[in-house]
From TrEMBL:
Record-annotated active site: 140 (proton donor/acceptor), 168 (schiff-base intermediate with substrate)
Natural source organism: Streptomyces liliifuscus
Homology family: Belongs to the DapA family.
The encoding gene: dapA
Protein name: 4-hydroxy-tetrahydrodipicolinate synthase
GO biological process: one example: lysine biosynthetic process via diaminopimelate
GO cellular component: a single term: cytosol
Known EC number: 4.3.3.7
Quaternary structure and interacting proteins, as annotated: Homotetramer; dimer of dimers.
Pathway: Amino-acid biosynthesis; L-lysine biosynthesis via DAP pathway; (S)-tetrahydrodipicolinate from L-aspartate: step 3/4
Key words, A-Z: Amino-acid biosynthesis, Cytoplasm, Diaminopimelate biosynthesis, Lyase, Lysine biosynthesis, Schiff base
Keyword Lyase carried by entry: yes
GO MF term set: 4-hydroxy-tetrahydrodipicolinate synthase activity
Amino acid sequence: MTSRRTPPFGRALCAMITPFTDEGLLDLDGAQRLADRLVSEGCDGLVLSGTTGESPTTTDAEKSALVRAVADAVGDRAAIVAGIGTADTRHTTELALEAEKAGADGLLVVTPYYSRPPQDAVEAHFRAIADASGLPLALYDIPGRTGTRIEPETMLRLAGHPRIVAVKDCAYDLLGTQKVLAATELAYYTGCDEYVLAMYAIGGAGYISTVANVIPRHFRSILDAFEGGDPDEAIRRQQLTIPLTELMMGSGLPGTVTAKALLGALGLPAGPVRAPLRPAGRETVDGLRTAYERLVAAPAGV
């Protein structure tokens, strides 16, 4: 098996939910307890204030406070990657500087959304953020939400910037991904839980997973099995996740909603979602709990 470059933020990253109190306020104690559990269960890094972290409905002050609290909780045991993406280059730059002050190790920067900028403007946006801060950047390519792709040719140009080091890939374009992987040093993390093994097998760095909020150790074990020379076991472990991943990510509800519902059912820090999101219904929660229990009860393998 070919050797891999050391990924900038580790291999196994969780797109962590943002816990709230029953009153809808930021729950920093809950965030610290959840972060400690995720790291203890195998996460190399935590991505805060991303899509799963409800970044559109948390304030700038809450984002900074969350980074500080989680960094205090995990210390040097895991990388802290702060989601700072907005539709406004100036605002994103301000968030980058605040995240750096708060103790983040890296930044996750999504393509500007709604305005649908052309590729030269997308490139200029990312370069402006990379130039403004001393932290390494992961570009977040999720055209299904932003309306704009980071085209492979744009990725190839951006890869030359010394602080643009990684990609969270939710573009569902494995051909384009492989073109960039073959030609650059960018570390590709899949943001699609069903692609964890597939991305790793073609040279990706690992994953940034929503489902890992509830089964962090299991997702880590997929990469460990593959890295340990047992692809059949890696396949088995990936396939075990299908029912839960489908319920959490393919049921028509946002992953934030399903992750918080299941975490809450398991007695772990979560709390409500913020409007316009709405909580999952009882039938959904029961289905998630059943799928989770079946997965954790599955044989460990040989």
